[in-house]
Design brief:
The protein is α+β, with helices and mostly antiparallel strands. 15% of the residues lie in helices and 62% in strands. The chain has a single domain, classed as Porin (Beta Barrel), CATH 2.40.160.
Length: 256
Amino acid sequence: MEAANHSKNSAMEADTISKHGARSKSQMSRIYINLIACFVLLTACLAHGQINVGGKEGYLGIRAGANFATWGGDHVEDAKYKLGFQMGLVADFPLENENLFIQPGFLFSQIGVRVETSETRRYLRTERRYDEIYKVSLNYIQIPVNIVYKSGSRLLLNAGPYLGFGLGGKATEETSVFEEGKLVDNDKDTEKINMGSSSKDDFKGFDFGLGIGVGMQLNDKFQVGAGYNLGLVSIIDDLFIKNRAFSITLTYVLGK
């Protein structure tokens, strides 16, 4: 798969950073520090868990869950889903309609892709099978802003855009060699992935897309949900590769 080879080659070759790249990383670092500061401030300001907007009560929640991520776009026919996780905060701000809320979030989210290939080669009278598993793990700070509809039957529906700020990641390539059905060799390599705006970075430091989801309010304290994020921008400079991710989440509502 060309996309996987691109990311693999980029990760192997990005050993040094130019002065421009260093400045870009410094700027990205300041952005991440500001985002973390906002997260800490939001947590401190809303520690009691209640939000009052126009006399209506909203709430802060702690969210955690699993991501099942892959890539869409060019040359991704072999892409499979990779397991990751997410965790962070969400807040419900009530609107005029009592069933509608604005729900921004601040989440650490791990997404990426998994590619599996298998090839059989013959050496004289010996047949060998080469199984390769290539995984890319990308870490983001994601800021979704959803409109949530809460029905009287505890059903939750949500949709809205999200922003993603790349924190870096890693690429792992594992090759297993089998001879007559027996494992005779296994090799695993891991490389760091850089994310940012420099030409030396393997992936872009920014992601944007749309999310939709459905959930259920189990009781006053817990919500379960399932969602899908559709990336709309390419995460690699010279290929059109977009993030895709299903998620299953559990939210604990504070203050109730």
